[in-house]
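Subject: for your reference before the review

Hello V.,

The reviewers asked for a structural picture of the protein, and I figured it would be easier to keep everything in one thread rather than splitting it across files. Below is the amino acid sequence we used in the manuscript, unchanged from the supplementary table.
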Amino acid sequence: MRSWRWYLSRVMRLFLRWFRLCLRRGHRKRPNRVRDLWNYGTVLMKSLYYNVLTNSDTVLDCVFEPIYWLVDNMTRWFGVVFVSLVIALTSSIVIIVYLCVLPIIFSTYPVHWILWHLCYGHWNLLMLVYHYYKAITTCPGFPPQEKSDIPTVTICKKCIVPKPARTHHCSICNRCILKMDHHCPWLNNCVGHFNHRYFFSFCLFMTMGCIYCSISAKDMFLDAYNAIESSYQTPPPSFTREERMLHKSLVYLWVLTSSVSVALGSLTLWHAVLITRAETSVERHINHRERTRLKLRGKMFRNPYHHGMLNNWRRFFGVEKRSDWLTRVLLPSAHLPHEDGLTWDCPPYRNNTVVI
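And here is what came back from the structure prediction:
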């Protein structure tokens, strides 16, 4: 059996022989040789990687594929960190409220305001914790992998399985999601058909809770901030260690809740607009492109899943009668959505509309 050194020497001899032949053929034929090698390499590359579907978008996707892979994996692995961060920050606010805010309320507020803060605060906390837990643990919904009679609109290019309407592929979960809205790293889960209501309710009650805390603790925050600023005076006021911790805790509570109120409130308002239009975040961009394309042709696009603003909210929350607004919206409820996520009830349309 020959060693690798023997093979290396043979390769070097062949290379030197080819190089001498090129030198003997003269200076005029060198450009032709280089051009022939270039043309041969071009044909070889095209035969391996080119087809009729190749375009600039495909090339860019291939170039950025390592970046997509890195972002998807970072989001997948850091999802646990984000969930832990939400739990830690929320728990810190709850602890500060119980240890710092409620004692001040009990000692300074009248009885009816004390009852209001106890009832509303605990109800908001219950709804927040319940919907966040359900949003994390509820499966968003996956299309069936086996062959079935369910109507489909396309084939997933990554899963190579039929996709029902409103189904999209999540590169982070590496699966198709029914009525996919987006992949939320703060839930470490996709927001889909079966947990969309839990996600929106969590955002809503978290925003309401933060606004409630920032408004209720506004005067306490101002007093604590002035006390901290006065510590830089000469001579500084004599605050105990417990009082300094109380001041810093109240400032931390107000700054955090006010910031989350603005950021999460904007996200909640955006999703409320989407629910009113019976769209998801993915469908919003798709429908916008389709609406622009049809407008240039003199046609009008209408969302086939739009049942009217109020009916969209009823279908989203699963409200079938008036009492359901109390039992299914204002109280914890684990009822299923209106549809199964595979087929959708579409209202009739006029003749001058185009349905996609």
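For the response letter, the relevant points are probably these. The two ends are 67 Å apart (CA to CA). Confidence is low (pLDDT under 50) at residues 350-356.

Happy to draft the paragraph if you're swamped.

O.
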